[in-house]
Amino acid sequence: MARAAVSGRLGGRLLWLPARLTERRDESDNARTLVFDVPGWPGHLAGQHVDVRLTAEDGYSTQRSYSIGSASGDGERVELTVERVDDGEVSPYLVDDLAVGDLVELRGPVGGWFVWRPDVQREPVLLVGGGSGLVPLMAMIRTRRAAGSRVPFRLVYSLRGPASQLFVSDLRTDDPGLDKTFLYSRSAPERWPRPPGRITANDLTAAGWPPDFEPTCYVCGSTGFVETAAGLLVALGHDPGRIRTERFGPTG
C-alpha cells in the first residue's frame, strides 16, 4: 500500500539498505506482492512502513512509502504489496517492471503508533480496511497467527469488487478467533447478502465490537474512507483514544 509519509520511528537513525527482489505474487487485478531480502534489516512491528528509493542510471532518484505486509519476526524478509496507480511514477514500475533479482533501497521501519504488539496488547482488536489499506492490517493478522495469539480479532474489509480483493488465499485460512466481513462498494458477488455501497454505522455495529468491550480499532485506507470510518466509530461510542488511523493518498 502506498501511503503518505508520516514522521516517527522506533530506535535509532534509519539507514538506506539494499533490498533484492526474490519473489513476485499477483494479489488482485492491479496489485502485486514484492518479497525482498534485506541484509541487515533490524526487524519491524506489524503496522509499520518503509521508504522505497529507486535510482535511475542517470542518477535521478525518487522515493515512496509503503506499508509492510509481512509478519513481525520474519528475519531479513520484507513483503510490500503495491497497487498500481496508472498515472503514478513509481507504482507502475514496481508492479509491472521490477524483476526478481533487481535491487532497490529500503529505509525503515517507520512508525510507532499504528502498530500491534502480540506480547503486550490483550484487548480485542477491530481492523477496518479500505482497498489497499488492508496491507498493514494483514501484517497484524499474520503476526497474530505466527505468535499463536488468542487475542480476538475482527476484520471489516471494504473493497470495490471481488476482482480487487487482496490476499485471497491468505484470508481463506481458518484463524480461530478472527472474524472476517467483506463489504463491496461497487459490485458484489452474486447473491451477496449486502448490496454494494459505502461503509455504514450498521456495518460496524454488525461486524465490529461493542464499545463497552473497549477494543483497539485500527482504520486504514484513503483519506475519505478513514475519516468516514473513524467518525462512525466515534459516533457509535468508541473511545477516540482507542482509534488508530493510517491513511494513504497520491504523492506529489
Describe how the helices and strands are arranged.
Layout: E1 2-3, E2 16-26, E3 31-37, E4 49-55, E5 61-67, E6 77-83, H1 91-96, E7 103-110, E8 125-130, H2 134-147, E9 153-159, H3 168-171, E10 178-184, H4 201-207, E11 216-222, H5 223-235, E12 243-248
Which regions contain 5 or more consecutive residues with pLDDT less than 50? 4-10
Q: Helicity, in percent?
A: 10-25%
**Averaged pLDDT, please?**
93
Report strand %.
25-35%
What's the tally of helices? 5
Strand order in the sheet with the most strands: 1-5-4-7-2-3-6
Notable traits:
2Fe-2S, metal-binding, Oxidoreductase, FAD-bd_FR_type, Elongation Factor Tu (Ef-tu), domain 3, 7-stranded antiparallel beta sheet, iron-sulfur, 33% strand, alpha/beta, 12 strands, 5 helices, Rossmann fold
